[in-house]
Amino acid sequence: MRLHFALATASWLVILAIISHGWQPAAAAGFPTLSTVSRWIVDEGGNRVKLACVNWPSHLEPMLAEGLGKQPVGAIARDVVSMGFNCVRLTWATFMVTNASYSSLTVSQSFLRLNLTESLAAIRVNNPALVDLKLIDAFKAILLPCSMVVSSLGENGVMVILDNHVSKPGWCCGNNDGNGFFGDTYFDPDVWVDGLTKMATMFAGATNVVAMSLRNELRGPRQNSADWYKYMQRGAEAVHAANPGVVVILSGLSFDNDLAFLNSRPVNLTFAGKLAFEVHWYGFSDGQAWRTGNPNEVCARVAASVSRRALYLLDKGWPVFLSEFGVDNRGGNVNDNRYYGCVAAVAADLDLDWALWTLQGSYYLREGVLGLDEVYGVLDWAWCKPRNETALNRIHALQRPFRGPGLAEASPYTVLFHPATGRCVVRGASLLQPLLQLGPCGETEAWAASSSQRRLALRDTPLLCLRADGAGRPARVGLSCGDDMARWSLVSDSRLHVAVNVSSSAGENGGGGGLLCLEVGEDGKSVVTNACRCLSADNSCDPESQWFKLVTSTRSVAAASTVLAQLTEKLRPWKIRSLR
Question: Which residue spans traverse the membrane (predicted)?
Fold first, then answer.
């Protein structure tokens, strides 16, 4: 415990010394300067940089990044890195830099005025040098370790997006909280632009700050597109003038659910190659529709709606950042569980940049409740370990890019992605009995999907294709590819059921007849085929085990596929019909 305290103190003494002599960012730690090319975010060389972020709030009443009473900032940074995130969306409140009654406060004063004495005592233990800093200096100090402390965010190449979440600090968001839209009680556009300018200027030399999001979840009775154009364009120009290195991210209306108005009138800015848009998508955005409706029908309807309102911008050549999505990580929320399979399928299919809500396992103070547990947090209440390892593991497949500029490691191929687990279809260990199972997406098979032939063949070994053997039987690869058991189609509204129609083959293939869908076996690993479930009408049915998304990828293919290709060449002279 003494060593732990000494290390924390030493780190913060370095930070305090730098702040006392005027803040200067540390030398670059290999962070890219980001820009945009069509729908992609890229580095200086034009290569794709996929944002795989987690949200870390600092905008509530204490105006200090959550969790600093639970762990040293370096430990939290290491957790971010160990969980596979390359980016933090760090939120802030405008009044922290524009309102003297807030900006003049030290961390100690801020916590004492809220009667957060226990949290303050805990911060003294875990991050002692923070306590007497001004709030803005403490905010800077959260970023300083990013390029100074071993194993911190910067040392591990983790980028930061500064997100202006609210004006008056507090929980977000309500339609009538005074923080929602330009002209609301606490949302003076001039003060807002001043705050953006100050933050952009302050972090202009911090190479790990790669983007700034202008405002979170515009909303409320005042919202309108005319004022959106007037002020968001003004804010974008102010940020770019103060810090031309960052990407500027614009949010939409209706709690960041609506960017449809841009379809008829694009933004008009003096700069180019530095603009992206953001959208939020939660299960509760559609009430309890996922729980009460048929999941396939709800997924199709909601995904189409999100596309019309925001994701259509990808086709118009703009990056769209899914800056908030997430689930109740306790695992028992049916609405969230069904939603997740759909949003993960869309995120993989479009290879979106994203920020998961959220890092924090608990809050200092939220809506009057001390130490409130955040069930959407990837960390537990004590910030000691992941809240739900299974939920965390399934996000890993989305952290790596599937495709994009500079990622032409292989010619395009199809991945069979299972969104509920975040795993992909791979072959079992034996080449001579090539049954299929779920495995890491980095070890995926490279499939070639032929819509005309309705065939899923191994791209580099086209003689081998995906086959069904009947209800309850393992799916496999084989050489017999011309019959119904090898003709696959997408059969549900969600287009997530991959099925063969074996009505004419029911007798010889184990019964069941009709449609057989790919499914994860009862062991949670094997890939089998069973009668398709939940295709329509049934609202109580859960289709997650049968949801697979065909995703296009160009990243490198596992070497085992090449071994199988060589084996097939050796077998070709014997004209073996099938590997059974």
Answer: none
The residue among 399, 428, 457 that closes a domain is 399
546: left (phi over 0), alpha (psi -120 to 50) or beta: alpha
Query: Is there a single domain that holds both residue 384 and residue 478?
Result: no
Neighbours of 330 (CB within 10 A): 13
Tokens 């396939």 belong to 296
Whether 368 and 516 map to the same domain: the answer is no
The one-letter code for the residue type at 574 is W
Q: What angle do CA 366, 371, 373 make, to 5 degrees?
A: 85
Q: Are residues 62 and 180 in the same domain?
A: yes
Residue 455 has, within 13 A of its CA and on its CB side, a CA count of 18
What is the DSSP annotation of 268-311? Answer: --S--S-EEEEEE--GGGGTTHHHHS-HHHHHHHHHHHHIIIII
Range of the structural domain that residue 322 is part of: 51-399
Total domains in the fold of the chain: 2
Does residue 497 sit in the same domain as residue 426?
A: yes
Question: Cα-Cα-Cα-Cα dihedral of 327, 333, 336, 337, to 10°?
Answer: 100
Backbone φ and ψ of 141, nearest 5°: -65, -30
- Whether 11 is covered by a domain: the verdict is no
pLDDT per position in the chain (580 positions), as tens? 433 444 444 444 334 333 333 434 443 457 999 999 999 999 999 999 999 999 999 999 999 999 999 999 889 988 999 999 999 999 999 999 999 999 999 999 999 999 999 999 999 999 998 999 999 999 988 775 443 322 345 666 789 999 999 999 999 999 999 999 999 999 999 999 999 999 999 999 888 999 999 999 999 999 999 999 999 999 999 999 999 999 999 999 999 999 999 999 999 999 999 999 999 999 999 999 999 999 999 999 999 999 999 999 999 999 999 999 999 999 999 999 999 999 999 999 999 999 999 999 999 999 999 999 999 999 999 999 999 999 999 999 999 999 999 998 889 999 999 999 999 999 876 555 579 999 999 999 899 998 777 999 999 888 999 999 999 999 999 999 989 999 999 999 999 999 999 876 544 433 334 899 999 999 999 999 999 999 988 889 999 999 999 999 999 887 555 445 445 544 554 443 333 3
What's the CATH number where 161 sits? Answer: 3.20.20.80
Same domain, 355 and 451: no
- Rounded distance between C-alpha atoms, residue 544 and residue 539, angstroms: 13
Task: State the DSSP H helix or E strand holding residue 104, giving kind and residue range, or none if neither.
Answer: none
Specify whether 114 is located in the same domain as 153: yes
Q: Do 467 and 392 share a domain, yes or no?
A: no
Whether 241 and 325 map to the same domain: the answer is yes
